[in-house]
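#random but structural
TW: two for the price of one
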Amino acid sequence: MSSIDRSREVGVTRSYEIRTYGCQMNVHDSERLAGLLEDAGYVRAPEGADGDADVVVFNTCAVRENADNRLYGNLGRLAPKKTQRPGMQIAVGGCLAQKDRDTIVKKAPWVDVVFGTHNIGKLPVLLERARVQEEAQVEIAESLEAFPSTLPTRRESAYAAWVSISVGCNNTCTFCIVPALRGKEKDRRPGDILAEVETLVGEGVCEITLLGQNVNAYGSDIGDREAFGKLLRACGAIDGLERVRFTSPHPRDFTDDVIAAMAETPNVMPQLHMPLQSGSDTVLKAMRRSYRQERYLGIIEKVRAAIPHAAITTDIIVGFPGETEEDFEQTLHVVREARFAQAFTFQYSKRPGTPAAEMDDQIPKEVVQARYERLVALQEEISWEENKKQVGRTLELMVAEGEGRKDGATHRLSGRAPDNRLVHFTKPDQDVRPGDVVTVEVTYAAPHHLLAEGPVLDVRRTRAGDAWEKRTTEAAARPAGVMLGLPKIGVPEPLPVAAASGCGCD
């Protein structure tokens, strides 16, 4: 009899907490880790746990220079809690685990399990093995064992869902270590993707985001260069699916058929996240990006011609090795020309294991900081100007959960427009649930959000709202398990869309 069976027999349930770092891929992986643990009999710890759970899982990111320092600092803070809490286990997974492997256990010998990006499905087995053998289990698969979407998933949202269409990446950008840790691109069969989408819609989900490290390269693994556009059109034929988004594409693979599919498929939203990284052809070449400024701006022009109200966002790295003032001015030029709704901007930092980390002419920190501040100021000005163009427009918003931090104090609710802009609106008299759709008129614009201060023009209750209400009611009625060890005080807040799409490395 397993420990899980024994715990059920005596009425004891083990709790878990997952801490997630990095991109949307990691956020979705954490949903799968939660699903695996709950399928194995664990329960999610209450809000605010901060390490007071029977199992604490770190789903790590290796993109930032100080990612390992952050991990080991957090592990160090858990060491005394583990000493005080018999039976507590700590697991480390994700990209940093794939990269550092045995180093983690050497630096933090109180860690019980280390697993990689290719074998997240093994977590419950590894936890049990570590408990029985009373020693750390380190298992890093070198290639994908099973496509992650076949695993149980505990989705954070009842009305919106990630759907992976591929894993891995075939690019060799000099600043990015992700391909070395996630492996070569592996595509899912279109029928499997559409079957998952249809299942989700049947459960009440009305918005899906197609997810991949390089999402519009989909089809390279199955020999069809137009597969992504076909997939978007196929999603348009699914009854009940109201909104389709995707992240993150790569300019190299962005083809006219994808633009046509976006424009001609009503439920594909007028939103595009297109990583730029740099506006300088010289820097793009050093980054090993396979497009140049003219190609990038040409894509933006075509998208705007086909979808006039599209909101385009991007990623930009400032201070890449060798970047001159002239190179940086080229980035500012592209920002002015493209007029992004929002830009996720990063100061370049060495990413261990990448070619760029060994390049000559690393830019002084103070120069990078000054350029970064100039870029942010320009983009803030453009974002505000573009948002002001929304004032007076009537928009359909999907009501969101947890997006408006001040909603309680302002008596507002928040929702996402079709182009993914965040809109705070006056709370109507009638009941409105996350997943429902409201119609509002925009009255005010700020750089990062819009306001609809007048009365709500229409409320449409949806199956997605029904799904949210059902989940919330069931969660409230579910009896709390008797936990092992010390009392728990919760888990991290549900993660929103990650601040940077695709680790900032697409």
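TW: number two ↓
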Amino acid sequence: MTPHAPHAPYVDSAAGAAVKAADRAHVFHSWSAQGLIDPLAVAGAEGAYFWDYDGNRYLDFTSGLVYTNIGYQHPTVVAAIQEQAGKLVTFAPAFAVEARSEAARLIAERTPGDLDKIFFTNGGAEAVENAIRMARLHTGRTKVFSAYRSYHGATSTAINLTGDPRRWPSDNGSAGVVRFWTPFLYRSPFHAGTEAEECARALQHLEDTLAFEGPATVAAVILETIPGTAGIMTPPPGYLAGVREICDRHGIVFVLDEVMAGFGRTGKWFAADHYDVVPDLMTFAKGVNSGYVPLGGVAINAEIAATFDTRPYPGGLTYSGHPLACAAAVATIRVMEDEKVIENAAHIGETVLGPGLRELAERHPSVGEVRGLGAFWALDLVRDQETREPLVPYNATGEANVPMAAFGAAAKKHGLWPFINMNRTHAVPACNVTEAEAKEGLAALDAALAVADEHTA
């Protein structure tokens, strides 16, 4: 374990125990069996690191939940929140407020195409809820197409759009959602041998599914530009442009979910910028202000915005465009510009994380594939590189998940807090991570992968 963080003021195990005791007595945690979890009591965080009350420091390769794009406690953003609190700590969303107006302007300047109107929410799931509501009202249609390998949030519509198993307990089967397969050559559902084949067959699959569902009944197709929790599968060249063309041909709203991939994570403002594609609606959250104060939103094109010029939009939130959250967004965007955070993410991905992860794959039999860009990478862990059998079964728990649990424990032992989902670990540090910090993370992954190797065939 690495030494305690130099900025941790003191070690106070008793205080940590008190925090843990209060948590266990009163906090109900998301996505958890409450009696089976043992949450770490966090004493502080700064930059790419956080530490506990016993002085153990961890390099955070999760960026919180892939949202602290500028790291923890950035002084410029903290100061902006403090200044806004002294000026106007809150105000109702029906009014024009400086922080809200400026945040919307800065976001609209950076979104692709004519996505120039911004509807603010408190987070990504609410952004997806409202994007789908807008698409349905704009088209007068009901059905929405989404991918099996996806995550769109935990609210009612968003969880029904989600592909991963977190949907299952809440899937009522009546939300008008049709799921389809998107391209993923490493585990191709289309028996493709090349990226070009995978792209062409995936587009044909979407066309065929639409034909049997009735294109005139479909309001929207929603995709994560680059799926996040589902595995960071970068789409092959031409795929998103092909989906755009299909949507245009059938009058379907094309929604890109950039909640995780947006605001510098991939080395550009938005992942869509890598693929020269402009959606009709784009959802965002997380990196817009590094999660310092909850904020999300929908960027809306001119045609859909015009639908509600004289027709009231039937949606809203008490805290839509909250001044503290918007002030944090303004400061975060300016920090990203001034400190070249996005350029750093691209540089780290190209020169440190990408090459370093691929080098690990060459030495560790547990690594089946490395994929990603910027500060957004995944290692697909396998029992056998030839058969590509995942290191643990899909949605494994208990004994079946022992290999991944052992990998995670080893990473933490070496001072790295890992992002783990199913048979994958993701390398998603802060976008302003330094070369030295990235290399420190790679070294810890190297040690942890040696434990994963013990479970290979």
